[in-house]
Amino acid sequence: MASLECRKKRILVANRGEIAIRITKAIKELGYVAVGVYSDIDENSPHLFFADEAYHIGPSEAAKSYLNIDKIIAISKKNNIDAIHPGYGFLAENSNFAKIVEENNFIWIGPPYKVMYDAGDKLRARKLAQKAGVPIVPGASLEKGSNPIEQANELGYPVLIKASGGGGGKGMRIANNDKELIDSIDVAKKEAEASFSDPTVYLEKYILDPHHIEIQIMADNFGNYYYFPERECSIQRRYQKIIEESPSTTINREKAKMMGEAAVSLAKEVGYRSAGTVEFLVDKDKNFYFLEINARIQVEHPITEEITNIDLVESQIKMAFGNKLLLNQKELNKPVGHAIEARVYAENPSNNFMPDAGIIKHYKRPSNAGVRIDSGGNKGAEIPIYYDPIISKVIAKGSDRKQALVRLYNALSGYHIYPIKTNIKFLMNIIKHSHFANGTYNTKFIDTHFEELSPITNNNTPLAIACYYYLNKVTSGGGLTSSENKMEECWTFLKNFRG
Amino acid sequence: MEESLNINNKNIDFTIKNEKNVIKVGLDDQQYVCNVAMLGDQLTAKSDNDHKLIDYFQDKDSHIIWIDDEEYIIKEINLVYEENILSEENVVAPMPGVIKEILVTSGESVEQGETLIILESMKISNELKASKKCTIKNVLVKVGDQVGGSDLLVETE
Question: What whole-number distance in Å separates Cα of residue B157 and Cα of residue B154?
Answer without folding.
Answer: 10
